[in-house]
Amino acid sequence: MKRILVPTDFSEHAEDALKAAAQIAKKNGAEIFLLHLLELPNQMNDAVTNGSSIPEVMLFIKKANEKLQKIKEQPHLQGITISTTVQFEKAFDGILSFNKKNKIDLIVMGSHGSSGIEEILIGSNTEKVVRLSDIPVLVIKKDLDTFNIKNIVFASDFSKEIKKPFLKMIEFAKIFDANLILVMICTPNSFKTTSMGEKTMKNFIADFEVNNYSMHIYNDSNIEKGILNFTNMVGADLIGLCTHGRTGLSHFFNGSISEDLVNHTIKPVITFKI
């Protein structure tokens, strides 16, 4: 994960994401790509396409570049290679197209935290990126003075389709030398005996070289509450999930993780595409 994209609208939430990305970059010797997307009115888009020079457009570009330059000069970004781009494109489309052109390894995005996180899951740009991005997406919920990840909960059904994205989870955990806390959530609708769950998890992890990990079975009334309650119980710093790409946050046990999980946690969440 040497190339990190941080989309910014110059909000506090975007700044929180940039702070986390900076700490990852310093630990991993990574480069940060700071991207601001301009969505212009249709008439301005037509003029830009025709090569016309519109004062308003030029002013937007100038102001955006000035803000990006000011961001680059912040003390906590010193020593990090940072590239800045102002791009004319809708936010969601622009982020995904930028990834492909620049071979990005990780996207770090901000969100509104527990009170407004439903925007991630109901048609927002962040939700679309989480759902459709082929690369890992780290969503930061609040300002973290120190993005020091020591314990990561990775919740899954540990099926075969999870193996490929799990390699990315291992790669991310190694950046921080973090402990992976693997958990299978059992509910009345997706019941597994402890022996069945343990066997599934042991067979899954046997295919990987992982040293710092533990395996757990946790029972709760539903998957979302189980992940949230288990994460709080073990005091983890980050939640890792896999995304399916069709229904938003990944399906577990033939279902989908509902907005409840993200609505009620202020923990950062990293997602990996199946």
TrEMBL record:
Taxonomy, superkingdom: Bacteria
Boundaries of every UspA domain copy: 1-141, 149-272
InterPro entries linked to this entry: Rossmann-like_a/b/a_fold, Universal_stress_UspA, UspA
Pfam families: Usp
Family note: Belongs to the universal stress protein A family.
Protein name: Nucleotide-binding universal stress protein, UspA family
Organism of origin: Flavobacterium sinopsychrotolerans
UniProt lineage: Bacteria, Pseudomonadati, Bacteroidota, Flavobacteriia, Flavobacteriales
